[in-house]
Amino acid sequence: MTSSAIPTASGPPGTGPGTDGTVVLSLRGVSKQFGAVAALSGIDLDVAAGEVVAVVGDNGAGKSTLVKILSGVYAPDAGAVSFHGREVSFDSPGAAHALGIATVYQDLALCENLDVKANLFLGQELRPWMLDDVTMEKRSWELLRELRARIPTLDVPVAALSGGQRQTVAIARALLGRPEVVLLDEPTAALGVAQTAEVLNLIERLRGKGLGVVMISHNMEDVRAVADRVAVLRLGRNNGVFDAREVSSEEVVAAITGASDNAVSQRAARRAVTSREEEGRS
After folding, report:
1. What whole-number distance in Å separates Cα of residue 31 and Cα of residue 42?
2. pLDDT one-digit tens code per residue, 168-192
3. pLDDT tier at 223, thresholds 50, 70, 90
4. In a domain, 265, yes or no
5. 58-109, pLDDT tens digit by residue?
6. Hey, which residues does 113 pair with through a beta bridge?
7. Residue 269 maps to which CATH number?
């Protein structure tokens, strides 16, 4: 669903530079109610292999509820979730992960007193009654090299790592199950410039590996840096899907805030669309 109140440059799913066009994850008419509060109403979303889809919106727009539905924490009250064209349902995060959907939450869920290897395999230890340290160490290095991670040793406690390195560990752990879709909840929140660049590079590499990536973010610069498409939520509803290569930050912010919901903005939107069409003909 695309907002008609603002100029949009939305492309179909699977048009990003790293995608093969195959839609992996699809939502149609997904809704979630908490008592009298409609957290989500009729949400549509598509994610293709090798594509980064940024989901943006103000506080209370429904982003967190959407992540929890996709990760198996909540079940939708209405609508359908499809994986490779087949309607699916999962009643736990483990079921979602087994299907091929991995989630990296904003708090990362790392144990700071444990080292990198222990965090990577936390809850997924190989032969838990007789730990296969050799295989786990080998697999850990394979994952970190795939992501070109700047972590010099596996023996360092996570507490000693930078914010960007911690995010790397959390993403690498999500890749252990070889997922096809990775959900990233505010991956650059509270990070410095250098650490943010490190995480954005990781997202590019996930796309390069052919994974579908859903990135929840408030940072428009980060969104424009790595996203192929931008899906806007407003008050629990779709309010625009944009091609990240063509849309301006101002247009996305207008969709987020509802600034386009007035006659003046609608006239400006029509003029902008007409101008773009004329440029395309010239």
Report:
1. 5
2. 999 999 998 889 999 999 999 878 8
3. very high
4. yes
5. 999 999 999 999 999 999 999 999 999 999 998 899 999 999 999 998 888 8
6. none
7. 3.40.50.300
* Tokens of residue 82, six digits: 């499809």
Q: Which amino acid is at 142?
A: E
Strands 37-48, 23-34: pairing is antiparallel
Closest CA to 207 of 242, 171, 231, 176: 171
Which pTM was predicted? Answer: 0.82
Could you give the number of structural domains in the chain?
1
Chain position carrying tokens 């660049």? 197
Q: How far apart are CA 199 and CA 255, in angstroms?
A: 26
- The sign of the torsion formed by the CA atoms of 152, 157, 163, 167 equals positive
Which residues, in sequence order, are CB contacts of 268 under 8 Å at separation 6+? none
Q: What pLDDT is attached to residue 6?
A: 36
Range of the domain at 232: 1-90+204-216+226-282
CB atoms within 10 A of CB 209: 15
In this prediction, residue 107 carries a pLDDT of 85
Amino acid at 33: Q
Contact present, 72 and 96 (Cβ < 8 Å):
yes
Return the structure tokens found at 17.
């530079």
Distance CA 23, CA 8 (A): 21
